[in-house]
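This section describes the prediction task in plain terms. A model, or a person checking by hand, is given the sequence of a single protein chain and must write out its three-dimensional structure as a string of tokens. No templates, partner chains or ligands are provided. The sample shown here is typical of the held-out split.
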Amino acid sequence: MVYRKHIQLHTSGHGDLHDLSEAVLRVVEQSKVDCGVAHIFVIGSTGAVGTIEYEPGLAADLPDTLDRLIPPGRHYQHEQAWGDGNAHSHLQATLLGASLGVPVENGRLILGTYQQIVFLECDTRPRERTLVVTVVGEVKRR
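The expected answer:
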């Protein structure tokens, strides 16, 4: 069984972190899949999906760490081609990844106590984002 739904998200720009856990769980519940995988994918090359403990300290630390690893304002080849100031956004999003697979068991996401599914906006401006959640698995006969 395959079930797909889109999640719409408005971001405020670079470093904006969103907890998607409840929204993804709702899609899993709607799918009626008992055992399988929930796959989350962001459409766009400057946003990232992953897991982290969603709390204010890490919500600040993650984008700060990425900015130290791949800082804005450096001389990137992308800037010569496009001049849009977001080469670091593309690189940060690529480093983290555009998708995530989370196991589903008994109709629930298998996540640790302090592990949430998150979306990180890496682009330099606010964006309207679409995330595609695809749930694949077996539906328990009731």
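For orientation: The chain has one domain: 2-71+82-139.
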